[in-house]
């Protein structure tokens, strides 16, 4: 089965979709979840693409079960967010990307794909040391890639291209590959992030210096600094699952040293 089923109708014209799949530092997921919460977005559609785990999700103070991958919508801002509570397995990513990007294309949606670039030298940082760095003065480096006319969005927002060659892998890489294959206009935002721990600071950089300039959204990101430790604790279990998964199951950007 490969369908996206509308659960709650929302009037959208030519929306932007922000992708928030789990990946390195959980940067995309933290950013996407923050947007959903900030704008109190509506649960719009169930993503039922082939290969997704057959699980049902429940949340505290809510008896309604939901699928693990969902689309949220905001009519006022002409906005969609792709939200996932599970990793996307390597063997499922091609079918998943075909399903999702096909739906985006048929509904005139411009996607923003989000990924982390593992920061060199942070892989061995212990948990306590990493917590003290969140919310500090250092802003992680961010760059953009694109398919179709996506470079126009990057240029307008002043987002620079990468400094060196690399590869986008994992589910987000599969989505970008599918967008490229279809000639769909899309943007990929890549932020320097911690490869071992959830990184709210990197997600804040994505929102402040990538998503906001491209979309024009006014997003208050101060909670990502103020609640950084709470966010880290809440996301640590999923981060552990991502570490235990195969490398190709985790969305990330990887430099191509020695292959140019």
TrEMBL record:
Residues 233-254 have a biased composition (Polar residues). It comes from the Archaea. Transmembrane segments: none annotated. InterPro entries: Proteasome_assmbl_chaperone_2 (IPR019151), PSMG2_sf (IPR038389). Residues 220-260 are annotated as: Disordered. This is PAC2 family protein.
